[in-house]
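Board notes (copied after class):
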Amino acid sequence: MKFLIKLKAEQTTTELLDFNKIQNCLSVPEYSIALEIIETEKKRVEAEEELIRAKEKAEEGDCLKSAFLSNMSHEIRTPMNGILGFAEILKTPDLTGEQQQEYISTMEICGVRMLNIIDDIVDISKIESGQMNVSVSETNVNKLLDDIYTFFKPEAEQKGLQIYYKNALPANKAIIKTDRNKLFAILTNLVKNAIKFTKTGSIEIGYHLVATLHATSLLEFYVRDTGIGIQPEQKEIIFERFRQVSESITREYEGAGLGLAISKTYVEMLGGKIWVESEEGKGSVFYFTIPYNTSKEDQTAI
């Protein structure tokens, strides 16, 4: 063990992993043995560093989930208080029919908001537990975009926003095999966010066919808005589970903040990827791809 004492005396901790410097202060037999011991030491240090990183990641996850639960408590209580509050007001005698309809309408809005939050919580729970499955069926993407447009048009116009969509394929080429419900949910989440974070301007929904080096082409969907935009450092973390809600509990805009995390998981389950291009103060464009799976006859005819 004399060569180890010699090593420690002549080399720093960092230099102990520098084989060239070790060779200069040891004989050939000693050098061979030292390499084995130092390699073992190097693996031990790497294992310790990996454990530290795993511990820090777990602690960060616990903090994020705690903040998530705190925010969920607030998001659920707010519409519930609205429902209970207006239900109590409806007991007031001598209300006019117009007043009653106004209060009932507010209660319906609160109910829909709460239902959306519960749906998001159920979805993220299924994702976390690995219980979310893909159900493939024939889906007309042109019809799907028309449904999305029709659904969100009143809400967008109520805010003074223009909303429109663009189809890239004719009707007979727009039928693909995918999970319609998940595709609908992805687009719904993206359009909902676009309307939420856009005060003036427009929302555009669309897609186009992208050729690849593989046998299957891709459909690249996009949702473009003229909203507040996203800070560069936020572009990656907004797709992480629990991340968005934990970092802005008191933010101006309501919502659970789970939509993008759910959308990212759904896109990956469908075999695609999702990303965002954005400039703060000017707007954002969210893109995602899914395989253009259809009959071989249709693909070769394009």
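Comment from the instructor: Residues 28-89 form the longest helix (62 residues). DSSP finds nine helices and seven strands in the chain.
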